[in-house]
Amino acid sequence: MSTTKIKICGLRRLEDATYVNNFKPDYVGFVFAKSKRQVTKELAEKLKNELDPAIIRVGVFVNQPLDWVADLVNRDIISYVQLHGDEDQKYITKLRSSISNNVIGADRDMKTGIIKAVRVKEELDIDRANSYDCDYILLDTYSVECEGGNGKTFDWSMIKKMKKPFFLAGGINEMNVLQAIQMVRPYGVDASSGLETDGYKDVGKIRNFVEKIREYTEK
């Protein structure tokens, strides 16, 4: 069984960096879009400096200026860009050309890349996800209230039409993650609010989440 990649999103405190260094997920996310987990460029750089360099840093954006996003990559504050808004293929193509260290290679995880998030409400959203020319797709739960991070799952049976490698997000936590992996075989799983207590990252939940996935997928 191939190892499912682990992404923990919404880091915003120095202790969050310590937590993930202890358990080493494959990816972490810094939210630059308006959110209770939003970080500034300066805070993201501090967090980056505390992180194990083997952990891939992803910036989460919603309809933000392309040059500002590219600058975060080119300054090596983040490696991957996750687009969670209405960014179209033209935006993605231009962003890719604006990222100076984007190197195409056999090892996908070792290059700068672009993740396009798609909020899933119906099967047509899966068709839309398949149409994007990007490195990975992230499938999240549709909500009229926010662009992501609402802690709710969607109907995973729709994912059977997914052709591109994808992260599964939306209400993923230590209780349902193995069911998700067994059912949809994602490239990776993405958790944020499901690893928090009272709105902040919980080291025990992070430990259980990472250990449960690795024990299952590496056996």
Explain what this protein looks like in three dimensions.
There is one protein chain. With 219 residues, this protein is of the alpha/beta class. It is 32% helix and 21% strand. The protein is built from 7 helices and 10 strands. The protein has helices at 14-23, 41-50, 66-74, 89-98, 123-131, 177-184, 203-217; strands at residues 5-9, 27-31, 56-61, 80-83, 113-120, 136-141, 166-168, 188-191, 196-197, 200-201. It has an 8-stranded parallel β-barrel with strand order 1-2-3-4-5-6-7-8, surrounded by 4 helices. It starts with a strand and ends with a helix.
Summarize the structure.
With 219 residues, the chain is α/β, with parallel strands linked by helices. It is 32% helix and 21% strand.
State the main characteristics.
21% strand; 8-stranded parallel β-barrel; 219 residues; alpha/beta; two-stranded antiparallel sheet
Distance between the termini: 8 Å
Task: List the helices and strands in order.
Answer: EHEHEHEHEHEEHEEEH
Radius of gyration from CA coordinates: 16 Å
Overall residue-averaged pLDDT value = 90
Number of helices: 7
Number of strands: 10
> In this structure, how is the largest beta sheet organized?
8 strands, parallel, barrel
Considering DSSP H and I runs of 4 or more, what fraction of the residues is helical? 25-40%
Spatial strand arrangement across the major sheet: 1-2-3-4-5-6-7-8
From the helix content, strand content and strand pairing, which structural class follows? alpha/beta
Low-confidence stretches: 102-110
Quote the beta fraction.
15-25%
How would the global form be characterised?
Answer: globular
